[in-house]
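Please predict the structure of the following assembly.
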Amino acid sequence: MIELVAGVDVGGTNTVFALIDQTGKIHAQDSFPTAAHGKFEDYVKAIGTGIFSLSSALGYEHEIKAVGIGAPSANYYSGCIENAVNLIWPGILPVVEMLSMEMGGIPVVTTNDANAAAMGEMIYGGARNMKNFVVITLGTGLGSGFVVNGEVLYGNDGFAGEYGHIIYDRHSDRECGCGRKGCLETYVSATGIKRTALEMLALSNRPSALRQILPERLTSKDIAEAAAEGDELALRCFEAAGKALGEALADLVAVTAPEAIFLFGGVANAGSLIMEPVRKHFENSLLSMWKGKVKILFSSVDEASAAILGASALAWDHLRKNKR
Amino acid sequence: MIELVAGVDVGGTNTVFALIDQTGKIHAQDSFPTAAHGKFEDYVKAIGTGIFSLSSALGYEHEIKAVGIGAPSANYYSGCIENAVNLIWPGILPVVEMLSMEMGGIPVVTTNDANAAAMGEMIYGGARNMKNFVVITLGTGLGSGFVVNGEVLYGNDGFAGEYGHIIYDRHSDRECGCGRKGCLETYVSATGIKRTALEMLALSNRPSALRQILPERLTSKDIAEAAAEGDELALRCFEAAGKALGEALADLVAVTAPEAIFLFGGVANAGSLIMEPVRKHFENSLLSMWKGKVKILFSSVDEASAAILGASALAWDHLRKNKR
């Protein structure tokens, strides 16, 4: 009999769920639009029903041992999604308790997307033999998941690891969605790189392909494509983002002294365009005792499945801990 | 029979050692000048002999269960003092192995001063019921000890927790002893506050008692005394230090989300002069989810004995872990 867990990715747009084994192989997968259910109770029921359907259709004997949920603003300790800004249900949502009931009492665990990504890296990815590492997710914003002594760092309240919201530049005028100014994610994220591009277009007269794109439509992907073709202004945007991230990661090393830092997500797809300046500024900025000792790597978890893999890794980790 | 541990504080000037019980009571204590022994072997022997002498002179039955050593640049994992800049012996010093042999094989553990302070706070001080907290030591420099899930955060190499060396201001010209510019400890430490005072004396024409003190002799204690008497320029120095520390601690919360942050050491003795601006700027700078939720407190471990208490706490923690 094969042992499986269910991984659930609660996204603002879609909810994806899958049955996954200990090697990270996906045995079955499905999804539905997150906003299809106005009541959160119905939404959780739909997840439970969806998992049972996948299980019924599976042509071989198996057992679903646990469920892991990656969700915005999810609190590992309380098992609740707490005031998520990009979901339609306000307030405190006891997703673990509700889904566990729906699933006949099997263990259910939850955490936020970046912590799930860190779990995925530890169980299936490049951090398999590491006890101290960090995953930085570079998407619309900048998320982070810290692993310390082989455990995700949740902190006192379950919400540790918001590295996108350390202040990168205390003299900055860049407004962040959090209401403050100068947060790292206003420099290093898809939207941060776009801001840098708009700033550079204003400051320089240099010709650039980016001048042909409506500011509202400009994306970090456009900037990466222009940079790949040698557009100097676009290249400078990645140099600036790499500088900010490299410097900020050097500060991070002074706190948790990880073995490696993994970059993951849309912006990381720019490859050496982002990695080269990150590594250069990181090494230049490190305290001398850490120079040459801390690796910066791309995540080795398949991006398309990373969210459900991370969620399932959380479930495997939970089972592993409770066997001890 | 009373169970005791020995706490050893390896200082640049003096080495202090004591026999301490589980409540933090010091049963016997002695010290000698650290540089009295040119060879490190002889130095370690002198510690061993010193502990045995204390033990022999004690008028009641007892057992010494372990030794904890707080030392500069001490690595918990390797048990070595590694390239300490303020000790007379260069290179890698296997202090744990050598002292354990000297002491007949009982467990010996070591870590740096700030981590030992965190241990002291956890075993004897205000963090007794906390699993996630930070101790910031404000002396000549700024040290930090992070506790996560009830364990000191050592990181991959044993040297995590150098919060004095995060970059507070990326546009700063303040040179740090580490060779970089803008480190937090160039703003928030006895020497940092002195720098701020010298800067303010240069920038302002305002009369101040600090103008009557030779720059070379000026100390943070002078500045605290002037501030206590209402000297406006001196008050501004503490406001500036409190702003820098409050802002930097808000960033720290975004990483480890502690329950409390303890301030300890010489500068902390300035009391409300430093605490008020720290708390004000900390609260103003926190991400909204943490506002009002993270305490900033003074250490409740007696400062005069904190170093040996912290070292002994490390020994008790080691014994506790190995009982499990």
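Chain A has a mean pLDDT of 96. DSSP finds eight helices and 13 strands in chain A.
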